[in-house]
Design a protein that fits this description.
Blueprint lengths: L7 H6 L3 H5 L4 H11 L4 H8 L18 H13 L5 E2 L12 H8 L2 H4 L11 H18 L3 E2 L6 H15 L6 E5 L4 H11 L6 E4 L7 H4 L3 E8 L10 H9 L3 E6 L10 H4 L3 E5 L15 E5 L12 E5 L5 E5 L5 H5 L12 H39 L3 E2 L7 E5 L4 H10 L2 E2 L1 E4 L2 E5 L6 H11 L5 H7 L26 H13 L21 H4 L5 H4 L11 H18 L3 E3 L5 H18 L7 E5 L4 H9 L3 E5 L9 H10 L4 E7 L11 H10 L3 E5 L19 E3 L20 E3 L36 H34 L18 E4 L1 H7 L3 H10 L6 E2 L6 E4 L7 H23 L29 H5 L19 H6 L14
Parallel strand pairs: 1-13, 3-4, 3-5, 5-6, 6-7, 17-18, 17-19, 19-20
Antiparallel strand pairs: 2-8, 7-8, 9-10, 11-12, 12-15, 14-15, 16-22, 21-22, 23-25, 24-25
Catalytic activity: N(6)-[(R)-lipoyl]-L-lysyl-[glycine-cleavage complex H protein] + glycine + H(+) = N(6)-[(R)-S(8)-aminomethyldihydrolipoyl]-L-lysyl-[glycine-cleavage complex H protein] + CO2
InterPro entries: GcvP, GDC-P_C, GDC-P_N, GDC_P, PyrdxlP-dep_Trfase, PyrdxlP-dep_Trfase_major, PyrdxlP-dep_Trfase_small
Organism: Streptomyces antimicrobicus
Length: 961
């Protein structure tokens, strides 16, 4: 009997999480390895990864733990956070997430595992939800064109600054910021302005723009409405004054307040920005939340970020798509007006659905309740002899208590309430949707006064200025009136999700995007109140669990990358790029090398690289790409020599943007260092390196990482993302910091990159859990299987499509590019045709025409099993046979399954006049009826949508185009 004994310790651990995360099991891996001619994962990666970059030692990380153990460990961390009632305000408020939205959006993989809707035919649900969001923002701000979300309020205001400079009449001049703008917003604006040579003037605008400022020329103005202090004042006069000076005016507005107050558009604003956090999105210690921007129509085509528009499909039916400049950083590169690539789609969907569920009446009720609590709180304080700074307010009061402010804040904390210490003699108190009568009583007691809620309610008037009360209608579209019951809302959310394609349906083989498993265990803690309900400016001793988690994640990311320090503040990859480049710039300036402003970027690089470099005050110089996809070494040497004294940094992606392990990367890094420059290694392709090589060891000085790629934070339909920046020790003093939380970064830092001190802290438990669940060996095997999957696909498809680039051993890294250009030239079948035809086979298309036009870049990730990988390969091979029928003339060039793809169920009805059968249209290559994904629309006419721009919910009579 003892011979069959299995130790209890082994039985207790069960099936390792690694086997849940990695799709191909041992048998499947063996088959894949045999197909490409290798005996083991180690043998494959030894051949693929150049010796010069290989890590000699295993990752020094804690061993893998089970899912139950990791959840228990996270529970211990969560319990170390103190979640007091937050009345801090400053742009972050308590809110109730309707459970139907929490369960069916935030916790639903149909929504959180989807990709950015660049393939609109299979993204109609998300796009409709984003159109709802845009309508909410446009209606409440009184401005006709809203984007599909920005990263947060601070960065939205910074984007408004650069938009104002771009479209305004005043060339030169200063950017004026009202002193009552949120302090973190002011700091983010200043961080963004300095490298661009923009002078920011912060001044009190309550009496207008001071004459000494006006005479210098003003190209833009930012006002907060209501102000950070809580003051509600009529800002029309200062808006008019700014317009007389030729300035573009931005109003940072609270959307909940705008349900009661006159809109920025009605007051004359050109731009409105803000956050939608209080529309049902938890505070999450700072994020993620959907920022917003809305503009006058004349500025619509200059709007940064993404914009959802209404177009038509091939049958003339209404269809949604991303419109205009939504990938402008790829097209315009160093001439791009923004580096934003990741938005906050999942959070925008939640905020939009909050408005759909509550409707205008419900939102007004929540706003009135919030204001009523503030008015009663104010009445009690005033009756108790406390001086209030402002007589008109929405939800926030500022009290003057000479010499006692810190004492009041401490007394409130003892009663379970966090207030904001606004100055030596000032205390700020904010009410929100979650405020209770007990909270008012605790605040009164902290100030040393006593009052009765019921008695005050009977005699206390509202405190909103009569002249600013809103009278126009908003949210009049039927979608904001049809879903009041939970049943109706549930079905609406299900209907939209059914239109989309996400990872819960099948593989999304997008090169450079790493659409891997977002495990449920990793996702679960995000909604725990101990993580979700903490205010980002709460005292740090109330966030011990969070700060421990952040420190451990930063340390483990350092170990993975070989860097000495990591900051997790950047809340998108683009922001991590900017943070890294600002650190390089600050380092050179500290050394007296202010002339070092040239950033070398390969022509194949991701478009955000060039846009970020310009935002960091650098001059972009493009380095050629050789025929084999590697950086042209001769051109690089020439550029280094030409700009030797001005060279600041080389930005490269490794493995290369072409999915290849370049053999000369260490040599390239050495050349740049010898010339006095720094090396920025873009972390977009880190999924090919973890456990095998470390950028900080083979020559990188700085990298951003995409936690929404390599480290399992889901893409959420186009956001959230987290883009931490890792640096070697000499750059560490120049990482981001934050004026409201000194512990969030070095004193010598470049300033805040994001509005919150630790960025999108609310989703960091996902990546922490992934690293903890996998351990060092598991992370390495995940990388090896990702490389295996890409090479297996390349070998299977190579007889049918040319693989454009390979590296050592004729191998690729974690992705491969297949070249469709010869086929397109010979047959007229385009890369678009193949991408849309894949929908009929039940797949999301790979990355189209990046980094090379007319190609598909395929990345399977380690999470896809062999059945799914083979299903994809079989589909691509079947499509190649279909292309041959077009080439032979069996199917006409303009009327074949590829040209007409995708095919909807509706398209099958009525007369059928195509040279292929209905079955060939919708059940190709073995697609079974019981597993069929039916796209809701046919191919969408993008040009029509751009010519006829509609970016909010159209009236019902316009639905039939």
């Amino acid at each position: 009997m003892t011979a069959n004994r299995i130790p209890l310790s082994q039985l207790e651990r069960g099936i390792p999480f690694e086997q849940r995360h990695i799709g191909p099991d041992g048998e499947a891996q063996a088959k894949m390895l045999a197909h490409i001619g290798y005996g083991s994962l180690d043998e494959l990666t030894a051949a693929a990864v150049p010796d010069v970059i290989k890590s000699a030692e295993a990752l020094d990380l804690p061993g893998a733990r089970t899912e139950a153990e990791v959840l228990a460990e996270l529970r211990q961390l969560a319990d170390r956070n103190q979640v007091l009632t937050s009345m801090i305000g400053l742009g972050y408020y308590g809110t109730f997430t309707p459970p139907v939205i929490l369960r069916n959006v935030m916790e639903n993989p149909a929504w959180y595992t989807a990709y950015t809707p660049y393939q609109p035919e299979i993204s109609q649900g998300r796009l409709e939800a984003l159109l709802n969001f845009q309508t909410v923002v446009a209606d409440l701000t009184g401005l006709p064109t809203s984007g599909a979300s920005l990263l947060d309020e601070g960065t939205a205001a910074a984007e408004a600054m650069t938009l104002a400079r771009r479209v305004g009449k005043v060339k030169g001049g200063v950017f004026v910021v009202d002193a009552d703008v949120l302090p973190q917003t002011i700091a983010v604006i200043e961080t963004r302005a300095e490298p661009l040579g923009i002078e920011v003037v912060v001044t009190d605008l309550s009496e207008g723009i001071p004459a000494e400022v006006a005479e210098r020329g003003v190209f833009g103005v930012v006002l907060q409405y209501p102000g950070a202090s809580g003051a509600v004042r009529d800002i029309k006069a200062v808006i008019d004054q700014a317009h007389e000076l030729g300035a573009i005016v931005t109003v940072a507005a609270d959307l909940l307040a705008l349900t009661l107050l006159t809109s920025p558009g009605a007051l004359g604003a050109d731009i409105a920005v803000g956050t939608t956090q209080r529309f049902g999105v938890p505070m999450g210690f700072g994020g993620p939340h959907a920022g917003y921007m809305a503009v006058q129509d004349k500025h619509a085509r200059s709007l940064p970020g993404r914009l959802v528009g209404v177009s038509v499909d091939a049958d003339g039916n209404k269809a949604y798509r991303l419109a205009l400049q939504t990938r402008e950083q790829h097209i315009r590169r160093e001439k791009a007006t923004s580096n934003i690539c990741t938005a906050q789609v999942l959070l925008a969907v939640m905020a939009g659905m909050y408005a759909v569920y509550h409707g205008p009446e419900g939102l007004r009720t929540i706003a009135r309740r919030t204001h009523r609590y503030a008015a009663i709180l104010a009445a009690g304080l005033t009756a108790g002899g406390v001086e209030l700074v402002h007589g008109s307010y929405f939800d926030t009061l500022t009290a003057r208590v000479p010499g006692k402010a810190a004492e009041v804040v401490a007394a409130a904390r003892d009663r379970g309430v966090n207030l904001y210490l606004a100055g030596e003699d000032l205390v700020s108190v904010s009410c929100d949707e979650t405020t209770t009568r007990a909270d008012l009583e605790a605040v009164w007691a902290a100030f040393g006064v006593s009052a009765d809620v019921e008695a005050l309610d009977e005699v206390t008037p509202d405190a909103l200025p009569a002249g600013l009360l809103r009278s126009d209608a908003y949210l009049t579209h039927p979608v904001f009136h049809q879903h009041r019951s939970e049943t109706a809302m549930l079905r609406y959310l299900r209907k939209l999700a059914d239109k989309d394609y996400a990872l819960d349906r099948g593989m999304i083989p997008l090169g450079s995007c790493t659409m891997k498993l977002n495990a449920t265990t990793e996702m679960e803690p995000v909604t725990w109140p101990e993580f979700g309900q903490l205010h980002p400016f709460a005292p740090v001793d109330q966030a011990e669990g969070y700060l421990t988690l952040i420190r451990e994640l930063e340390e483990r990311l350092c170990e993975v990358t070989g860097y000495d320090k990591v900051s997790i503040q950047p809340n998108a990859g683009s922001q991590g790029e900017l943070a890294g480049l600002l650190a390089v710039r600050a380092y050179h300036r500290a050394n007296g090398d202010e002339q070092r402003t040239v950033c070398l970027i390969p022509s194949s690089a991701h478009g955000t690289n060039a846009a970020s470099a310009v935002m960091a005050g650098m001059k972009v110089v493009v380095v050629k790409t050789a025929d084999d996809g590697e950086v042209d070494a001769a051109d690089l040497r020439a550029k280094i020599e030409q700009y030797r004294d001005e060279l600041a940094v080389l930005m490269i992606t490794y493995p290369s943007t072409h999915g290849v392990f370049e053999e000369h990367v260490a040599e390239i890094c050495g050349l740049v260092h010898e010339a006095g420059g720094q090396v920025y290694v873009d972390g977009a392709n880190l999924n090919a390196l973890v456990g095998l090589a470390k950028p900080g060891h083979f020559g990188g000085d700085v990298s951003h990482l995409n936690l929404h790629k390599t480290f399992c934070i889901p893409h959420g339909g186009g956001g959230p993302g987290v883009g931490p920046v890792g640096v070697r020790a000499h750059l560490a003093p120049y990482l981001p910091n934050h004026p409201l939380q000194p512990t969030a970064g070095p004193e010598t830092g470049v300033g805040p990159i994001s509005a919150a001190p630790w960025g999108s802290a609310g989703i960091l438990p996902i990546s922490w859990s992934y690293v903890r669940l996998m351990g060092g060996e598991g992370l390495k095997r995940a990388t090896q299987v990702a490389v295996l999957g890409a090479n297996y696909i390349a070998k299977r498809l190579e007889p049918h499509y040319p693989v454009l680039y390979t590296g050592p051993g004729n191998l690729v890294a974690h992705e491969c590019i297949i070249d469709l250009r010869p086929l397109s030239k010979a047959t007229g079948v385009s890369v678009d045709d193949i991408a849309k035809r894949l929908i009929d086979y039940g797949f999301h298309a790979p990355t189209m025409s990046f980094p090379v036009a007319g190609t598909l870049m395929i990345e399977p990730t380690e999470s896809e099993d062999l059945v799914e990988i083979d299903r994809f390969c079989d589909a691509m091979i079947a499509i190649r046979a279909e292309i041959e029928k077009v080439a032979s003339g069996e199917w006409p060039a303009g009327d074949n399954p590829l040209a007409n793809a995708p095919h909807t169920a509706a398209a099958l009805g009525g007369e059928w006049n195509h040279p292929y059968t209905r079955d060939e249209a919708v059940f190709p290559g073995g697609v079974s009826a019981d597993e069929k994904y039916w796209p809701p629309v046919r191919r969408i006419d993008g040009a029509f949508g751009d010519r006829n721009l509609v970016c909010s919910c159209p009236p019902l009579d316009e639905y039939d185009a």
